Amino acid sequence: MHLVVMRPTAVLIVVILSAAPMVGTAAEGPLVRRDVAGFGILSMRTLRLRNATIIGDCSVGVNCGSPSANSVCGRISSLGSTFGGQLIGDVAVMDQRSRGVQVFANAGERVLGLVTRPGSGANGTTPFQTPILPDVDGDGSPSCGTIGGNCIPDFGDLERACGMPEVFPACDLARTLRVNLDQDCDPFDTVPGNARCDLPPGTYGRLSVSNGGRIQLTGGDYAFCGVTMGDRIALTAAAPSTLFVSEDFTVNSDARVGTRCGDLSIFLRGRAFTIGRAKLSRRPVKSSARSKPFVQSRFTANVCAPEALVRIGPGVLLVGQIIGGDFIDVGGSLTLACCGTSTVATP
């Protein structure tokens, strides 16, 4: 028996030092998303969700930071919601039923028990910087600043980030349009006699769609002074269509708006964007025991409403994106899926 002794091989370890630290390494954890394209919801000041389900890599966030401990600006509130993508807010307040894997928050309640990699460091010790968006419009002002203890958004940054044109198309009040149940919309209708409004692109006044009304856009650019739609309406697009709305946008319950990703884009100058019967209440929102989502309205579109209060009623299935000033899921049970780069049918 021969005993063979192996001589240990020398191992040379070379350490290369760099003057600039590496960004986005596994040790540091994921970086905060700062590109609007990756958000399903991006609110300028506040975000409140109840029993919401965010599907896949679809992020939600609040752009501004919180200027003081008692401020609602920069705050995300979640009751019983599940987040598939990043949840980003300076202050996050979550209940015990909320779930998420990438929550970026510098302060809040029950945040650390929810997070796998909080902040910009793996151990959560390095806070991320607010606001989320840079100075997109290049005017030298941050997308959200602080003056006198109040947050001051620069809505121009949000407009440029989501592609709103600098010159907003004007509407024409003299061309007011009403769509009634099982009726055409003379004199604008391109296919008369089919009990539906087939609307060509152009400049219009206020658009009003009565309960059960149907309207199909033929494709192109549409300018409206305001949009009000009732219950059980259907708004579809035969080709990609862009709506420029100078005032408010409202659609009631059991609505079907859009069919596929890329069909509808909505740019809103108004101060209110509402889907479903969303009534604000002074009472605090309470968590519900509801475990299964229900759908009352399906809404497939990309919405850019920088200065609007976005209110979502109960049971809305949203496929696309909503960018707004403040976002409140009033009714609860919102289901959100981002479109991404592919064209998909509404679930």
Radius of gyration: 24 Å
Mean pLDDT, rounded to whole units? 82
First-residue to last-residue Cα separation? 73 Å
Q: Tally the beta strands.
A: 26
List the total number of helices.
1
Pick out the low-confidence regions.
Answer: 1-28, 280-293, 341-347
Q: Roughly how much helix do the residues carry, as a percent range?
A: under 10%
Widest sheet: strand order? 1-3-5-2-26-25
Oligomerization state: single chain
What proportion of the residues form beta strands (DSSP E)? 35-45%
Inertia-based shape: globular
Search tags:
1 helix; six-stranded parallel barrel; disordered C terminus; two-stranded antiparallel sheet; mainly beta
Protein described:
It is built from 1 helix and 26 strands. It has 347 residues and is an all-beta fold. The strands form 2 sheets. The protein has a 6-stranded parallel β-barrel. It has a two-stranded antiparallel sheet with strand order 9-10. The protein is globular. Mean pLDDT is 82; it is low at 1-28, 280-293 and 341-347.
What secondary-structure arrangement, pairings included, does this model have?
Blueprint lengths: L38 E12 L2 E3 L3 E4 L12 E5 L2 E7 L2 E4 L4 E6 L2 E3 L34 E4 L2 E4 L1 H7 L15 E3 L17 E3 L2 E2 L2 E4 L4 E4 L2 E5 L1 E4 L4 E4 L3 E5 L3 E3 L4 E2 L6 E5 L3 E4 L21 E16 L3 E14 L5 E3 L10
Parallel strand pairs: 1-3, 1-4, 1-25, 2-5, 2-26, 3-5, 4-6, 5-7, 6-8, 11-14, 12-15, 13-16, 14-17, 15-18, 16-19, 17-20, 18-21, 19-22, 20-23, 21-24, 22-24, 23-24, 24-25, 25-26
Antiparallel strand pairs: 9-10
